[in-house]
Amino acid sequence: MSILPDYLEGAIDLHVHSAPDVDARRFDDLDLAREAQRAGMGAILIKSHQNSTVERAWLVAKVVSDIQVFGGLVLNNTVGGLNVEAVQLAIAMGAKEIWMPTRSALNHRKHHDQAGGIWILDASGDLVPEATAILQVMAQSDCILSTGHLSPPEAFVLIHRARRYGVHKILVTHPEWAPTFYSIEEQKKLAQLGHVWFERCFVSTTHLCGCVPFHVIEQAIVETGVDTTVLSTDLGQLQTPPPAEGLGLYAAQLRSSGFSQEQIRQMMCTNPNRLLFEKRTGES
To answer: Within 13 Å, how many C-alpha atoms sit on residue 143's CB side?
Structure first.
């Protein structure tokens, strides 16, 4: 069990995996929350590639005290893909994050030499009606829209349209990972739109995701800004560190590279807190 340093008390991990799941996980939901609470974290957001975690998180929060536990919905085939009714239900039940397709995305499946997959653009390069309907629903909420495993060209169209509709919390999912890689210039263009953050996941630096060098992440933070970065782990696998330990390792690496405690706290505490809890204002 890892205890986070004092400057990371209340850290938030917006991207953790736990059981029940078809993939082997290090912890079940309850043990994950207990470990995070003992480490001094403030909140976690449980992600499943297969189904909603909103109901699971609600129950865990009833059992485990002194930590906030949230859930969301990934729009993979197992929930009907680009299913606006599923999005509406998840948000009504308290979802904090809606991810575009991950393992069902055409981009993901092509990268893994698999057939088929969800593509959110039509033949003219515009969003398909189902994706448009989802953005319209999300624009009326305070829920985070995440890009999942879409290709950058898809995500660019999605994000521009989302901003036009007034979606005010957009999170680009692991922009350093090979299948969803965004150049620094692409990230800068997205950041200029406002209300766009980049979720830089610790798992990208492990063997599971191609061992992305830390300096790639560090350069992206320097170039695009601490204020647009969220540091999450995407951990929970058997062969990787526990999520709380991963946050500690992540922070230690960034400290050794010259990032200050205040900067790391902003990326692990302040920015994710804003995404979870900030309410919509009149400005979009």
So the answer is: 31
φ, ψ for residue 200 (rounded to 5)?
Answer: -100, 110
For 91-150, the pLDDT digits (tens) are 999 999 999 999 999 999 999 999 999 999 999 999 999 999 999 999 999 999 999 999
Q: What does the DSSP assignment read for 158-180?
A: HHHHHHHHT---EEEE-TTSGGG
Structural tokens at position 248 = 């500690």
Dihedral (Cα; 183, 257, 249, 67), 10-degree rounding: -80
Coil/strand/helix, residue 248: helix
- Report the interhelical angle of 184-191 vs 214-224 (nearest 10°): 40
How many whole angstroms separate alpha carbon 88 and alpha carbon 101? 16
β-strands 72-74, 196-201 pairing: unpaired
For 186, what's the count of Cα atoms within 13 Å in the CB-facing half-sphere?
Answer: 16
Domains of the chain: residue spans and CATH: 6-276 (3.20.20.140)
Take residue 259 and report the two structure tokens written for it: 């990032």
Q: Note if the bond before 20 is cis, omega within 30 degrees.
A: yes
